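quick one
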Amino acid sequence: MPRVYLAAYGCQMNVLDADRVRDLLATEGWETAGEPEDADLYLINTCSVREHAEQRASAVAGSLKRWKAQRPGRRIGVLGCMAQREQGELFGRLPHVDFLCGPENYPALPEMLGRLDDPAVTHLAALEQHGEVLEVEASRRGGAFQAFVAVSQGCDRTCTFCVVPKTRGLEKSRAPEAILAEVRQLAAAGVREVTFLGQTVNSYRWEGTDLGDLLRAAAGTEGIRRVRTITHHPAHMTERLISAFAEGGPICPSLPMPLQSGSDRVLAAMRRGYTVDRYRRLVDRLRERVEDLELTSDFIVGYPGESEEDFEATLREVRAVGFLNIFAFKYSPRPGTEAFPLVDDVPQADKERRHRLLLDAQAETSRARNQAQLGRALEILAEGPSKRDPSRLTGRDRSGRLVHFPGQAAQAGTFVQVRLERASGLSFSGRACIEES
Ligand code: SAH
Ligand code: F3S
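structure w/ S-adenosyl-L-homocysteine:
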């Protein structure tokens, strides 16, 4: 049997895409190799969101020249956003790469691999846009009790800094029947927590069906205890969807909803489609209706023209809104985006300082907010041994709070009631009280 080694970088959608490609190739007789040394085919699923992500993928691809030379017949494929963005120019930089496959072309992979059986064939590319969504049978992906499910692919928005609409194309929602059949399949295979993925997951639409309808249907699936969602865009949050979150139960009150900046001037320049005030009112409304809601956000520091005052406004919002956690990124100009021609005028040292100050502000806010949670007993899905201390388990509650507690590896995949005893900036530690399965 031929063997494939697959490395994935970037967002959750990329991790899911890699799993789906693995499943697809498995149906074509490919085995997964645990190590590159055992593989005949090396696939790199790439990310283009920031330059650094591309540099890492390029370094890996570059280092594979030796791997390829070690055994005749070995092949290298570059998948995903970097392949889509760079197109054939990538072969100029990395001539030992055999083929490229863009995010909308994975269904073409088996046919491409067939053509590459001919030793004379190299440098194939499948980079069609607005093409197909890969539909493959769900296997037990990743952690056997947790799985991602894509509800849509691509993005219709026009954030000036973002390359995703270019590389992943316009938004395509999947049919509800296909999504729910996948959820049922995963549940039957032992999955207890599904995470619905979309670049703007809350703009999901299929005829009369919205994300709330999907959430309710998934929540009602036998075996499913939790349904999560990534990523919400503030401008697409509707009262109808908020009602679904308000129902609670398996529908988790955990909302990744990026604000990106606390300055209206910068938000407008980024073409985000909301003001700080509108975001705050939305958060108030969500908290009013959804019990125990926790929000997370992405922020970009050093967008072209961002002044110290703009950045101060971002710091203020981070303190005022009270996120569970944030991701902070230094602006990275991406070719093909609307912002690319703008002068990247915030010096690197300022970007770094702002990045650090933002994370510090969040850590301080988290500590204070987390302190207020101590003494509560939460239902934690145990994910596995803690990285730092194998005699402890790591898991999350419905709202997404990260909790460490004493326990055995065999408990992974079970739900445990844990009382919170200590809080740090990023997580809690606690102790099991009553156990369920
Ligand atoms: N809607 C998507 C966004 C993908 S990009 C999702 O969250 O699933 C993820 C994050 O990367 C964005 O929210 C933004 O904060 C950051 N980002 C995107 N383009 C960037 C750029 N050019 N430079 C720095 N950060 C960027
Ligand atoms: Fe990118 Fe904005 Fe869409 S961040 S993925 S263009 S919502």
